[in-house]
């Protein structure tokens, strides 16, 4: 294909990839993985309110996330370096007159993914053929799993972009390789597994961890803002147990990502892969092994696997399709892969608890802007995020202690359980509907 038409076709794929990611893009942050999305978006929202402080990111949750009994009344959020939030903030400053912060957050991930698709095309063409590159790019853009998890407000899509940029920059520029690779590890340290093809330049590969190491040293000045994370390795002892194989290779890779029928070209691709692709695949497998519990617990953890999975499926499909009949069989497999994977992922778009959204809107209108709120939702910060206030997503202490020790002023609930009913009897109810109640934590004057 003439190079000019190659780029036109690539542009068409990117446009279609953008369009499919607009599905339910205006959803509130109350769909699947809303907890993690709310935490990420809250950092940017607090920058919008209070100014950018890259070295001390803050979110809304004051509770103990460290697992060490350390409450976090300053709301420190020391996880990944907030590069995603910087881009989110910059785009929102340009688009705030037209779009909400949440919509711009989703667009941030989508734009990163479109860049990833272009980078993956050139990387696949370099290490294989143009045909493999085209099909790899199409699979990457239109796998239903990847469509959903690249329009969420998470740093993971940006990490994938930076990994691909680092891989593409090698070997032409060691400096660019180091810059993109270091940023990828800063955004998500798990990126190091997917940079394994850089290992032949050992000292460059090892130096990618230096900026992250400095960030971790800085973070430990405020341990209350560092979420417990060692459990992600093998906290429940599941590694190599039958459930580990079932969840990761059956439910996630087999069903959710490859829709069962994609397993056939994927396995064929493994046998056709050269040493470069196999090194990348080995890094992906090592990642699944090391972060055994994290990958079981969180389905978005498999997002960085999608580029190499797309390459292997494309390799297998093109190798098999040597006759018209075989091409028809492979087209049937790919279509079923996409269809069945969509059937598995479509529920993630649903907002399963609209009352938290409506209660949050009511609280945002009624309460002072700097109010500290208790919005219990089993520790999930999605409800607290909807109130547009900072505070607590659970009753980790009695309500009186949260009020007296941490200044909690209001309680918002969508459940009329015994706990809520007791608080309603003791304190002042400001608003009440069948769906929610908003309570000021001040005892009313009784006759």
TrEMBL record:
Where in or outside the cell it occurs: the entry states: Cell membrane
Name the InterPro entries on file.
Answer: LipidA_mod_glycosyltrf_83 (IPR050297)
Q: Quote a single Gene Ontology cellular component term.
A: plasma membrane
Q: Name one GO molecular function term.
A: pentosyltransferase activity
* Transmembrane regions: 103-124, 131-147, 176-196, 202-218, 277-296, 303-322, 328-345
Q: What's the protein's topology in the membrane?
A: Multi-pass membrane protein
What coarse category fits the chief subcellular location reported for this protein?
membrane
Which BP terms does GO give this entry? Answer: lipopolysaccharide biosynthetic process
Q: Which UniProt keywords apply?
A: Cell membrane, Glycosyltransferase, Membrane, Transferase, Transmembrane, Transmembrane helix
State whether keyword Transmembrane helix applies. Answer: yes
Q: What is this protein called?
A: Dolichyl-phosphate-mannose-mannosyltransferase family protein
Tell me what organism the protein belongs to. Answer: Candidatus Amesbacteria bacterium GW2011_GWC2_45_19
């Amino acid at each position: 294909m003439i190079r000019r038409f190659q780029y036109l076709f690539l542009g068409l794929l990117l446009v279609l990839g953008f369009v499919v990611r607009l599905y339910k893009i205006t959803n509130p942050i109350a769909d699947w993985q809303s907890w993690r999305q709310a935490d990420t978006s809250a950092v940017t929202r607090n920058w919008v309110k209070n100014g950018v402080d890259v070295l001390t990111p803050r979110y809304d949750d004051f509770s103990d996330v460290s697992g060490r009994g350390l409450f976090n009344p300053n709301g420190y959020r020391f996880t990944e370096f907030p590069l995603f939030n910087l881009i989110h903030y910059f785009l929102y400053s340009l688009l705030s007159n037209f779009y909400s912060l949440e919509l711009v957050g989703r667009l941030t991930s989508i734009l990163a993914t479109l860049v990833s698709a272009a980078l993956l095309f050139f990387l696949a063409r370099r290490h294989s053929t143009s045909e493999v590159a085209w099909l790899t790019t199409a699979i990457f853009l239109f796998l239903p799993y990847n469509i959903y998890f690249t329009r969420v407000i998470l740093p993971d899509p940006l990490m994938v972009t930076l990994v691909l940029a680092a891989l593409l920059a090698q070997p032409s520029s060691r400096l660019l390789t180091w810059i993109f690779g270091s940023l990828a590890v800063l955004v998500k340290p798990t990126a190091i597994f997917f940079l394994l093809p850089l290992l032949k330049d050992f000292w460059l590969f090892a130096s990618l961890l230096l900026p992250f190491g400095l960030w971790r040293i800085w973070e430990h000045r405020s341990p209350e803002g560092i979420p417990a994370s060692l459990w992600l390795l093998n906290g429940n002892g599941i590694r190599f147990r039958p459930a580990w194989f079932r969840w990761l290779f059956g439910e996630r890779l087999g069903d959710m990502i490859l829709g069962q029928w994609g397993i056939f070209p994927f396995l064929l691709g493994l046998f056709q892969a050269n040493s470069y692709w196999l090194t990348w695949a080995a890094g992906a497998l090592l990642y699944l092994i090391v972060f055994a519990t994290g990958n079981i617990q969180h389905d978005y953890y498999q997002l960085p696997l999608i580029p190499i999975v797309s390459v292997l499926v494309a390799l297998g499909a093109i190798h098999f399709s040597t006759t018209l009949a075989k091409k028809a069989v492979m087209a049937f497999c790919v279509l079923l892969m996409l269809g069945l994977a969509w059937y598995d992922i479509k529920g993630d778009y649903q907002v399963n608890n609209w009352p938290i959204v409506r209660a949050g809107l009511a609280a945002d209108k009624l309460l002072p802007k700097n109010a500290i709120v208790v919005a219990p939702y089993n520790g999930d910060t999605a409800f607290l995020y909807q109130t547009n206030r900072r505070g607590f997503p659970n009753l980790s202490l009695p309500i009186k202690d949260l009020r007296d020790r941490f200044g909690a002023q209001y309680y918002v609930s969508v459940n009329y359980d015994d706990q809520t009913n007791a608080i309603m009897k003791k304190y002042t109810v400001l608003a009440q509907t069948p769906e929610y109640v908003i309570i000021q934590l001040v005892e009313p004057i009784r006759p």
